[in-house]
Design a protein that fits this description.
The chain is of the alpha+beta class. It contains seven helices and eleven strands. The chain has a single domain, classed as Nucleoside Triphosphate Pyrophosphohydrolase, CATH 3.90.79.10. Strands 1, 2, 3, 4, 7, 8, 9, 10 and 11 form a nine-stranded mixed β-sheet that branches. Strands 5-6 form a two-stranded antiparallel sheet.
Length: 242
Amino acid sequence: MAQTDLKSAYDREGDGDVLLKGKASPRPKDAATLMLVRRDGPQPTVLMGKRSGRHAFMPDKYVFPGGRVDRLDGRAKTLTELDSACEAKLRKSARRLPRALALTAIRETFEETGLIVGKAAEIEGPYPPGWESFYKQGAAPCLTGLTFFGRAVTPPYRPRRFDARFFYGFAEDLLIDERPPMDGAELTDLQWVTLEDAMALDLPSVTRFMLGEMAERLDPARANRDPAFLRWTRSGHSLERL
């Protein structure tokens, strides 16, 4: 599968938002997303869903579960923590604690799909806001098995900007059980699709880029490559490795 080139990864065409005209650029908000990968079929598959058409940011696009970091996400209790290599790479550029970013990806995955990244456990409250429903499933989040593989900052000329960290993990290792994903208000048409079929969906360009990154990481020889960092600079769009 060919990797999406850097220019198209930040191309506005088809991403569904509007360019700012003569207004100050907003500061990017921290966000996190999770690409769940299944390896129990003839080809690896990833979980994707369609964003509601009511969203102002990327309406009707297919994406991975994810969203903005809540202020208290980092206080959620876990059974396991990020491995040291993953945490070190996140600390290179994160304003927030690395565990807060990973926990946001887990919380958003639960809220948008009903899937639980964690293990059975009874965790006593009080719970951080937004985590009550998760813990009441008799589960606690686990951060082991999450891999940080990409970061992308929305260009400054967009009306909504995010500093998004992309994680991936293998469903058979991360998920508490085999329950199917459930459509909700945020994502519909949730489905496990091959990477090739995912590329045929109506995707935000950065999502397409990250799928290409994932395809390369499924090659054992490239599994440990450094995370990609996409951002805008005064000289144009930039790709670095963290």
